[in-house]
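The aim of this short unit is practical: by the end, you should be able to scan a pair of folded records and say something sensible about each. We start with the first protein, listed as its amino acid sequence and then its structure tokens.
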Amino acid sequence: MDESDRDGQRGREKLLAKLGLEDKISLLTGADYWLLHGHPGIGYRHFDRAGREPRYSFGHGLGFTPWEYLAAEVMTPPPAGGAGAEAVIRVQLRNAGTRHGCETVQVYASRPDSAVERPVRWLAGFAKAEAPPGTEVIADIVVPHRRLAHWDIAVGTWAIEPGDFHLHIGRSSRDVPLSVTVRC
């Protein structure tokens, strides 16, 4: 890193500190985190690993109506290690407001007992739901095989670690009222 890079880093740090945002922006680039924190944390994954609460969680958005997440089930479990395979998660939700609305239903995967270094939680799939007020709808979220895989250095390909993956379902990375488990 030359002197101009260090000046840029110091300027960025001062600006974020002056604004009170040095630990609040969940969508900084990987390069910004590298410069600010000395490691390649990226967005919400950095906040999850550090146990910090961002001002706005990943996937956060404001709609014109509230939604209730009622139930989730695994419709199609992923076959063990099958390339191109996918899991389908069916989510039942209700527009609890007085206006027609849309909701992006998000699925985050986690593997707390993984032998592979992974993020605490990562986005695995999402789908849009739309409904008039008071109406229940179903959203089917496809979770592709690759979203649960890791790069296996020993064999030089993507691989699925056998065992249970927890899938957390909700409106953002931190607001996940439902969960299901899939076994790979």
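Turning to the second protein, read its sequence before its tokens, just as you did above.
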Amino acid sequence: MAEVKNIYLPFTDWSVRAIAEGRKTQTRRPMKPQPVLGKPWKDWIIDPNEMDLPTSYSGAIPGDILGVREALVRGGDCAFYGTDGQPVNDDLDSDVGLWKWKRDVLPSIFMPHAYCRYKFPLVRVRAEKLGDITWPDCLAEGLEFPFEITNPNIFNIEKFAIWDAWETKWEEIYGTHDPDLWVWCYDWGER
């Protein structure tokens, strides 16, 4: 059995709020480098008929722990979570939570692992094209809507609204939405 690893991914404030509210149980990240059909990719030949890429190339496998990195802000000499203003550490005897940086805001990508307050065991890791996301996966990405899907087996206007909202959210984070972009999907929700 493989040793459990901790992986830490940066998240936007919006994503952290969705995680805290229990709405976000998946995240997608672009593969680097992008695989090309018929060409070697990390010692793997990409076959157009068999797109089951080894999940070990993602840096994580089911059972590994996903740590959520979020932006921090300065509050005097202490660090606070940028999403909700909560202090990083209420333990006055610990130096975890003391502000150690020159800037007043620390982006999520630089958040120290010890400051992670959300950690989840991964239940599924898979490769897929960004355009292959399903509408239930869009909801698992944390999107909120003021309506219910009345019949999940038919295509209706609500489902198209969900996909459109997902594309918009992806573009806000990554700048462009390319349906042919290969991504790793990390899932920590119940299955």
